[in-house]
Design brief:
0% strand; 2 domains; mainly alpha; 191 residues; Arc Repressor Mutant, subunit A; globular
Length: 191
């Protein structure tokens, strides 16, 4: 994808996409804390000032990457639950897809929840986050806006999937090689 200088090929007219791709490559290689706007511009083959035209600053560019990440997570979890009618199996499918996404897209996952690096008022970020949350709501069923018990179950479901993902990413979850461990934990949400 990159040339011998480490730059992503840039085609005029698609600077926004080139900068997002460069940012994703940087955070995949170096982690979120290794990101710099200057490096993203260099990899996209543009001047250090060029990103400001589309994103304003580093926060704007990282927010755009987080929007892509949240939308991808929503797509993955929605696809995993499509056609699953059993409520327990639906929550299990959603949780497993959530964890797989976190493990396969670690840099994106880390960025998505680093709220200090993101523009939390960005409408696209809010919409993408709501898309993800909607999948959890659908997996639980009910209306969290009118039923406090449903709201609590939705939060519990999300917290369990997110917590298991975070524990696995941090190397703190010891499963002793049992492939049924995570599904067994996720099935505790059947109450």
């Amino acid at each position: 994808m990159t040339d011998e200088t480490g730059r992503l090929p840039y085609h005029h007219g698609d600077l926004r996409a080139a900068l997002i791709a460069a940012t994703e490559a940087i955070i995949a290689e170096r982690g979120v804390d290794g990101f710099s706007l200057r490096e993203a511009a260099r990899r996209a083959g543009v001047s250090p000032a060029a990103p400001a035209h589309h994103f304003g600053d580093a926060r704007g560019l990282l927010t755009a990457v987080a929007v892509h990440a949240f939308n991808a997570l929503a797509d993955v979890t929605r696809a995993a639950t499509a056609g699953v009618s059993d409520p327990v199996e639906k929550r299990l499918a959603m949780g497993q897809a959530y964890i797989r996404y976190a493990l396969s897209q670690r840099a994106r996952f880390d960025l998505m929840f680093r709220k200090t690096l993101l523009d939390r008022d960005d409408p696209a970020l809010k919409e993408a986050g709501e898309r993800c949350f909607a999948v959890v709501v659908e997996a639980i069923g009910g209306d969290p806006d009118t039923d406090p018990r449903t709201e609590a179950r939705v939060i519990a479901c999300w917290a369990l999937a997110h917590g298991l993902a975070r524990l696995k990413l941090d190397g703190a979850l010891i499963e002793d090689g049992d492939p049924d461990f995570v599904p067994m934990v996720l099935k505790t949400l059947s109450v």
